[in-house]
Design a protein that fits this description.
Layout (H helix, E strand, L loop, with lengths): L1 E4 L5 H10 L2 H10 L5 H6 L4 E4 L25 H9 L4 H18 L4 H16 L15 E6 L6 H14 L4 E6 L4 H14 L2 E3 L8 H14 L4 E6 L6 H16 L4 E9 L4 H13 L4 E5 L8 H10 L3 E5 L7 E3 L2 H9 L3
Helix pairs in contact: 1-2, 4-5, 5-6, 6-13, 7-8, 9-10, 11-12
The structure holds guanosine-5'-diphosphate and magnesium ion.
The site of magnesium ion has 6 residues, from helix 7 and helix 8.
Length: 344
């Protein structure tokens, strides 16, 4: 759920529609209404309308981690090995297996189906958190989402998917191309801006100070009445001090005008324990509020979700399951546990 600015002209129609109808239909209603001078909308005190974003389930599955093992309550060492291979972490693997044994004993479960159900329920419980939604409900717009992570993790792709989703949900979105290090990075974001019907603020020259681009993106997003501003950054991790300085500067210039709603760290799940190392480094230099875990379509290492939440206490909010615009979902512990265990 998030709040976006209320369109004055559409007041009544929108209000009535929003309560019951999906967002797509609301936009149809808005489209049919006469166009209002932008100044009228800008000058009016900001009123907010509650928008229920459509629920997004994963359109593609990811690799089940445990489906190939035979569950046997007398012999759960194999389960422990697979948990470790799937990046749950050694102590978490031991704890999970011990708890499965306890629950199986208590309920007298012995069959493979029963054991899988116990495991699915246990993982669901352990991965469920109350803070998995994106922070898009403070009412202070535009919401700024700062996206960080090493090169190749999937930042730009995730931004494109998320922007498209928000635009489909009725939001106005601006992207800030603060990865100014490579011209190709700007072009790639521009392609996603076009595909997702978002605005974009680009550097005026190659290698322009990323903070300057972030600053301009904030000004433009405010001026064009955006609901959400998503800022792409470069992910050079060679030098922690350099990264800290760069992200710190970007933060400061944004916060001159707007609070940052979300610092989303993008991690490539196929990199396994490396993703954990990156997560630790980035949480030290940026106040990470959520993780987007990409490439789960090609990885049998989904346990990294568990490990990140368990060890770093940061919620995984988004998961990427492909290169396509719709190949992502909001993290749902139960859906994820079922996917991992390969049950049903
Ligand atoms: N299979 C798969 N590929 C992805 C996913 N997310 C990103 N990619 C690919 O990973 C590569 C790097 O992504 P990019 O967004 O450029 O990473 P960035 O350097 O962090 O901005 C690209 O080829 C993307 O298409 C995903 O969820 N699944
Ligand atoms: Mg990029």
């Amino acid at each position: 759920m998030f709040w976006r600015k209320k369109d004055k002209a559409a007041d009544v129609a929108v209000e009535e529609q929003v309560v019951q109808e999906p967002e797509v239909q609301v936009e149809k209603v808005v489209e049919q209404l006469p166009i209002v001078e932008p100044t009228v909308v800008e000058a009016a005190p900001q009123e907010l309308v509650k928008v229920e974003l459509p629920k997004r389930n994963l359109t593609k599955g990811f690799k089940a981690v445990f489906s190939r093992i035979k569950f046997d309550v007398e012999n759960l060492e194999e389960l422990q090995d697979i948990l470790i291979q799937a990046d749950f972490g050694v102590s978490a693997a031991e704890e999970i297996v011990a708890e499965v044994k306890v629950r199986a004993k208590k309920s007298g479960s012995r069959t493979e189906a029963e054991l899988k159900e116990i495991l699915t329920d246990l993982l669901t419980e352990k991965m469920t958190r109350s803070d998995v939604s994106l922070n898009l409900d403070s009412g202070k717009q535009p919401y700024v989402i700062l996206v960080v992570g090493v090169n190749g993790a999937g930042k730009t792709t995730t931004i494109g998917k998320l922007a498209n989703y928000l635009v489909e949900g009725g939001a106005k979105v601006t992207l800030g191309a603060a990865d100014t290090f490579r011209a190709a990075a700007v072009e790639q974001l521009e392609t996603w801006a076009t595909r997702s019907n978002s605005s974009i603020v680009k550097p005026v020259s190659e290698g322009q100070d990323p903070a300057a681009v972030a600053y301009e993106a904030v000004e433009k997003a405010i001026a064009n009445g955006s609901d959400v501003l998503i800022i792409d950054t470069a992910g050079r991790l060679q030098n922690k001090q350099g990264l800290m300085d760069e992200l710190g500067k970007i933060r400061r210039v944004i916060e001159k005008n707007l609070p940052i709603s979300e610092v989303l760290l993008v991690l490539d799940s196929t990199t396994g324990q490396n993703a954990m190392t990156q997560a630790k480094a980035f949480t030290e230099v940026a106040a990470v509020t959520g993780i987007a875990l990409t490439k789960l379509d090609g990885s049998a290492k989904g346990g990294i979700v568990y490990a990140i939440q368990d060890q770093l206490n940061i919620p995984v909010k988004l998961v990427g399951v492909g290169e396509g615009i719709n190949d992502f979902g909001f993290f749902d512990a139960k859906e994820f546990a079922i996917g991992l265990v390969g049950e049903k």
